[in-house]
Amino acid sequence: MKNSMIEVIKSRRSMRKFKQEKVEREKIHTILEAGNFAPSGHNVQPWHFTLVENKSLIDEMNEEVKALLKKFPVPFVQIIGENPNFHIYYRAPQIIVVSSLEGAVTPKEDISAATQNMLLTAESLGVGSCWVGYVGVGFMDEGFKKRWSEKLSLPANATPHFAIALGYPDMQYIKPLKRKSRENITIVE
């Protein structure tokens, strides 16, 4: 069955190479609006999105997170932190920091649904995106969280969990992504 939403879902990929041209504000607003229309437990809508377009701020946060990754108790994460060529945001020109707000019934689930809405909307607009979890390691550190909550003007009741790297793709995927088809589905009648 052909369906434009299914086609967007199937074509979306995590982009890890971006042009440095910024995404137009109108498209950014559409992406953010899609996040606001996500489902949430008891319709609390417990999210806060912070658009960061300042390249030096993005690079500074990258370096501070990488310093924390070097000390993380998982060896492969330490290796990523030690890699001088790795940039947690893949040098994207814009990022959206995704936070949950206090009082949520299901905070991580809610902001995950909002993030997926934004990723799919970005794809539908020709904008590359990548869900970035490494920044969450930074926000686990109280010093980092305090500093960056202030730098990003986050609300006092916000807890950042991850980010979305955004920009125009500087590469093209050729093969369709292979997925398990029916082997991970059970139907009970």
Q: What's the CATH architecture name? A: 3-Layer(aba) Sandwich
Main beta-sheet strand count, sense and barrel state:
4 strands, antiparallel
**How many H/I helical runs?**
7
Per CATH, the class reads Alpha Beta
CATH fold-level topology: NADH Oxidase
Would you identify the CATH H-level superfamily? NADH Oxidase
* Element-level helix/strand string: HHEHHEHEHHE
Mean pLDDT: 94
N-C termini distance: 23 Å
CA gyration radius, whole angstroms? 17 Å
According to DSSP, the number of beta strands is 4
Strand content: 15-25%
Can I get a quick summary?
The protein is an alpha+beta fold.
Report on this structure:
The structure is a single chain. This protein has helices at residues 4-11, 25-36, 55-69, 75-82, 107-124, 135-140, 142-151, and strands at 47-52, 94-101, 128-132, 158-167. The chain has 189 residues and is an alpha+beta fold. It has one domain: NADH Oxidase (3-Layer(aba) Sandwich). α2 packs antiparallel against α5 (107-124) and α3 (55-69) crosses α4. The longest helix has 18 residues, at 107-124.
